[in-house]
Automatic annotation (TrEMBL):
It is found in: Cell membrane. Coiled coil: none annotated. The lineage of its organism: Bacteria, Bacillati, Actinomycetota, Actinomycetes, Pseudonocardiales. This is Cation-transporting ATPase F. GO terms for cellular component: plasma membrane.
Amino acid sequence: MDEVVRLARTDAAAGLPARVARQRLADLGPNALPARRGPGAVRRLLGQFTNPLIHVLLGAAVLTFALGEPVDASVVLAVVLVNAIIGHLQEGRAERALDALVAMVTTTAVVVRDGTAARVDSADLVPGDLVVLEEGDRVPADLRLVRTRELRVDESSLTGESDPVAKDPAPVPTTAPTADRTNMAYSSTLVTGGGGRGVVVATGADTEIGRVHRLVGTTGSVRTPLTRKLAKFSRLLTWVILGLAVVAAIVGVLRGEPLGAMVTAAVALAVGAIPEGLPAAVTITLAIGVARMARRHAVVRRLPAVETLGSTTLICTDKTGTLTANAMTVREVVADGVRWRVDGVGYSPLGPHPAAPRAVRECLLAGLACNDADVVERDGRWVAVGDPTEAALVVAARKAGITDVPDRVDELPFTSRRRFMATRHRGGVVYLKGAVERIAGFTGTVDHAEAERLAGQGLRVLAFARAHVPEELELTEDVLRGAEYLGLQAMHDPPRPEALEAVRACREAGIEVRMITGDHPATARAVADRFGLPDDAVHARVSPEEKLRLVERFQAAGHVVAMTGDGVNDAPALRRADIGVAMGRGGTEVAKEAADMVLTDDDFATVRAAVEEGRSVFDNLRRFIVWTLPTNMAEGLVILTAILLGTALPILPVQILWINMTTAVALGLTLAFEPRDPDAMRRPPLPPSLPLLTGALVRRVLLVSLLLVAGSFAAFEFAGGTVEHARTVAVNVFVAAQIAYLVNCRSPRARLRANPWLPAGIALTVVLQLLLTYAPFMNALFHTAPIGLSSWAVVVGLAALAYSVVELAEVPAS
Ligand SMILES: Nc1ncnc2c1ncn2[C@@H]1O[C@H](COP(=O)(O)OP(=O)(O)OP(=O)(O)O)[C@@H](O)[C@H]1O
């Protein structure tokens, strides 16, 4: 150990001088893993060509070329390329969005430099730094431990072994395999219990995890249950369509049509009917959702959460810090029958010192002594350093002019499970503070009536006691029995205004809200009252184990449960919940690791915002599917119908390919950018078992495909003029009806301005259609001809008719 300290040129008590740390940081770089390098851009682009659908299309292009149809062949190739490029761009975008999220959740570490401890960004650690580890921390770098206190570490991130490993500073043979070095704490592992100190021996890429990272070096996947379901669906669809295409070609040939023409028709049928754009659209919609949530302070750690959020039916939330501001002020001290009121709000300890009776002073001293927090003035404002509950006790004591406490010798630290804390001071005096029932367990008596009165006002009540335990005796719970009761302190914690509104909004959205708290039942009920929550939605004095059981109970009742948490012991409940939500500021690294989503502002309102965005992601996915399925189906049906009926094709295969290539991107994909529906939180959650294709959706797909097919046949039949002219009118009717249907699929209340992509996509489509209709080279390539004003009137008229039929049919999109 001394060797390590000497080699790192540091000091085991005072740490590095800040100047040296700065210099090393400049020399060695930040303590961060190099940005993940996924497959290169070219590799990823090539990866797009592994899709079997693409193989079918490429085969079709070769076949068409061999049959002497170079134009058709090139258009098929163009479809393939456009789709591959779009897929490639979207995938890159989605991955960048996910990578950016990683950077949003920064981790911090407590480091001792120049003899004082301070919390710094983990990236600023350098070899030689002396790091303090606490329960719930993530080890920020590879550390050689110099001191431990019942330290237990979960090394599963490194070894895959999830049982916590006990650590201590005793030397071990250097020949021991890495995993067996019990005197080391490795970067990225989690402190599940105890604490300790260690000297940084490796940072960034030099750490053990950095080595693993280099070996693996792959990017996270953007797969979710929904994308898997969709992939399966489109595979099935692809085979059905291919089968139909082959049947159609055979029927045509049997009827005496030339083989070449039938092959081209079959290719167009398949290319038109297969919704190639679907995977890209899903990915981009999810990525947009993730980015929108991040902007509203909800960082998604696991992509499937985006989907599940939309169907959340129950949110279990913490009280302190999530529903309330966690800005504590002591309002009243009760000691020896005296009620002493404390004025002022916030953490300022200044002001007149009202003379406090002796019993009250002893109670205040206990609060100041049994305390790890402080208050400091920063930019003219007093702020809490450490636990706000304890900071409030510091303020209360200082307001009474109490500032000095005897030196502390040792302590029993506060944990949610223990619900009290004790500190022993020079001479053997021990101060205790904690939950009223816990302190009563030691003292035998507390002022229960007063405690109930204060809790009933929504105040957080702590009880205080004093004991005497000689320094030779070990400080345990047993030796504290018989402690002397000193009094109560009651503190106010105002509700967060946004949370008040958010709870109301959730209930309007059909989502049940339950408050889960470690606090006293009377306090919890009084606070719940402010939020309009009935008593049976309040679970007080809940232990982390009970949290897990609650989640399981709610899930068994059919709920999709979102659960917030911040402590080490909350991890199992967070993992078990459908959406585990960790606090970004107040939460431990262990909780964040277990969570699906991290709130960077710890605010309940953010859970609501995330649910809203989750619903909107679902809406947009549905919108895209509802738009794309009938348009694709109609593209295939136009050709299938003509072949089966033995009539002239109203739209040529090459024209179908053109429509397919231009509209899927210019029109369909714009739906992914639709703003969220203002009504999204005014309807009940979607049942999680809801299939992708509901009966209503299937009916709508059928209706719209029939309209498109009928419209193009009718246009072709009645347009007159040359066959090129008639087909051009039919193509324009088909595209115009697609545009009209796009408007049908928009969110009914969103303003057009909110999604500029949509009008831009429509404008682009119109320009492309004008080119197709009037540019001579396009006329030559695609067998089209200019059309007159009256034909445009027919085009617009039929599109408007299709729009009205869909609106009037009132087939809901979901
Ligand atoms: N620093 C502390 N020292 C001693 N006792 C404490 C301290 N903080 C809280 N307590 C006591 O322990 C109880 C539980 O606190 P805990 O922090 O687990 O829950 P909570 O923050 O009130 O609830 P939640 O955050 O789940 O809404 C409190 O009601 C209080 O009586």
